[in-house]
Amino acid sequence: MPVRSVADWGGLQEWALTAVLDLVAAGHEVVVAGGQGLFRTKILEAGADYIDVDWTRWEQAVDECLRRGPWDRIFSHGPLGSDLALKVGGLSGAPIYHMIHGSYLDNVNHWSPRVERILVSSPALLDFVVRVGFVEPWKVSVVPAGAPRWVFDLPAPSLEEKLQSGRPVVATAARLAADKVRQIEPTIALVREVSDCIDGRPVELLVMGDGPHRAQFEQRLRQSVPESVTVTIAGWVAHDQVPHVLNRALATCAAGMGAARALAAGALTLAVGAQGSVGLQRGRNLRAGLWSNFGDHGCPRFRPSDLSGDVRSALLEGTYDEDVRRARDACFYHRNEDRVRAELFDALDLEPAVPIDRAGA
């Protein structure tokens, strides 16, 4: 599994780690080829093996990848990950499965005939690689970012319970990197709307995550939120603790895997990703969010409903609990880990992780 990413941690790494855990649990031997850092540590803890790759000189890893084979499958991720996969697959004859996680083509139109299947993390990317990248539609499978079943099982506090806390929380969870900068202004707008609706009571804006643009996030947020809002930059929070924080949050601004887990945890969620906002996740905004990986992958000709009106409807007109429940149900249907795992194993042409019970069918 060659995995190339541009950050120490983020949605791509968490997606890959989850896939490794599922594959290892099903009895498969997994070897990840990737860079140094937290991802390497987590992969080794998950029971997989590892091949170190310097992505600035990835060709030097080819001999080691061939030596560690033979491989039944090569399952690559990200630009340069595809280069390593194509080289090793071409020399070894192993079938290649490649996953695209974002709105980039990686010259897929030139090499898609050489791979067994293209996996994408949203329906928006399926449309993108077929329409723009000229990949054969039958070759593309959607395997989105999911949420663990236990997150959906967390009791969802009601609006009344969240407002009874001394300082209601608006939370974000993201890499503080260039592709997330466009979340800053929507987060400010969300906090302002929440503050207005609860008559200026104290609110905490809790920012979970870190990255090269941390200072820009912190400076802009502290300058722009109302005086009644306390800004806390928490840095990286353990990924198994993030859903608990989101479960208690009144609202959140997130995209991709963060948004999926916010919905699963029962938080009112404003979805803003690398390609723009798809609004507060209710009604048609929610359909657009699930389609576009919550704004990360674009949603052509879509305009979200008015944020101010949506927040006021949720907090002042009493639709909050229903909005959260409906979004949580929709996220469970599309994004629960059992469904995502089944889609992954099907896309990799593997036996299901859990045997299909056809008794009585």
* Rg, alpha carbons: 21 Å
Main sheet: strand order: 9-8-7-10-11-12
**How does the helix and strand content classify structurally?**
alpha/beta
Q: H/E series, N to C?
A: HEHEHEHEHEHEHHEHEHEHEHEEHHHH
- How much beta, percentage-wise? 15-25%
Largest sheet: 6 strands, mixed
Distance between the termini: 36 Å
Instruction: Give the strand tally.
Output: 12
Tell me the overall shape: elongated
Q: Bin the helical content.
A: 40-55%
Estimate the mean pLDDT confidence. Answer: 92
- Total helical elements: 16
Low-confidence stretches: none
Please sum up the structure shown.
The protein is α/β, with parallel strands linked by helices and 361 residues long. The chain has 16 helices and twelve strands.
Topology:
Elements: H1 11-25, E1 31-34, H2 38-45, E2 49-52, H3 62-67, E3 74-77, H4 81-92, E4 96-100, H5 108-111, E5 117-120, H6 123-131, E6 140-142, H7 149-152, H8 159-164, E7 169-173, H9 184-197, E8 203-208, H10 214-224, E9 229-235, H11 242-248, E10 251-254, H12 256-265, E11 268-273, E12 276-280, H13 283-291, H14 307-316, H15 320-335, H16 337-347
Parallel strand pairs: 1-2, 3-4, 4-5, 5-6, 7-8, 7-10, 8-9, 10-11
Antiparallel strand pairs: 11-12
Helix pairs in contact: 9-10, 9-14, 11-12, 12-15
Notes on the structure:
With 361 residues, this protein is α/β, with parallel strands linked by helices. It is built from 16 helices and twelve strands. The protein has helices spanning 11-25, 38-45, 62-67, 81-92, 108-111, 123-131, 149-152, 159-164, 184-197, 214-224, 242-248, 256-265, 283-291, 307-316, 320-335, 337-347, and strands at residues 31-34, 49-52, 74-77, 96-100, 117-120, 140-142, 169-173, 203-208, 229-235, 251-254, 268-273, 276-280. It has a six-stranded mixed β-sheet with strand order 9-8-7-10-11-12, sandwiched between helices. It is elongated, with a radius of gyration of 21 Å. The mean pLDDT is 92.
